[in-house]
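Worked example 2:
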Amino acid sequence: MQMENSSDQEEVSEESFNSTLQCLKDLQREYEMQEKYAEAEKIENKIQKLKEKKRKKDIMKLKNRQKSERHSINSIYKSESKNFNNRWESVLSSNLEKYKVQEEELIKKHKKMYEDEKETLEKNAPCFFKPSAMLLNTIKCKEKAVTSKKYREAQKLAKEIESALEIEKKMYIENRQAKIDKQLSIFQKKLDKELEVLRLKKEAELREINKQRLYERENMERRVENICRELENAQNIQINIAKGLHTTNAGRQSPYKSGSSFRSDHSSPSKFLVHKKSISKAT
């Protein structure tokens, strides 16, 4: 309704100008016919002042409309830029969440595999202690000493056997555990390698996403720059035509003539800002 009222007011103003101008021209012709040239000159001055006033008013209206056009493009660009960022943040967030779930599941799986492997190794590792040849020889010497009634020597050998037995059992347990730990370490490296492969895959995909995002952002910025440059040139031509300044033939043939609207030709943001692309490849 407000736009209709504004249009009506412009039509009334235009009609008033044309009516006044026609009256002055009619009066000027009457003075010319009556050979009242001084009066005709005064009327001519009034006509020129009226035209100059109308020209300034038209230029002011044109500048206001051009300002609105620039503001409209800026607003649409900001909206499209926000949508662009939200869309890519969603893609990035979705991929990060996907790999987070995969990594958590793989770590959980690895933990169970590690515990199963540990249990298997401990179960299959030899559990029976076997004394060394030296210790067996000492035991035989003790038995001979006992048989020969050499109890003092037997007592001494018994203490040596007890001490050696304790040491060898401890070494056996440590060696057994070392072998298990070595096998578990090898197994863990295998699991870590599998996890590293997943993380490298994630990093590679995120790099591709950021690369595609940057590519689309640069294209969007170039499109906006081109639109702004085109609009600026078109508006300069409009102002020059409105001021009656000399312009090239190409300029006069521009679709952005006085009274035309850049916005009316580009009312849809999809025509001059961001054409949303499918990002199924990125996802």
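Residues 91 and 280 are 9 Å apart (CA to CA). Residues 36-272 form one domain.
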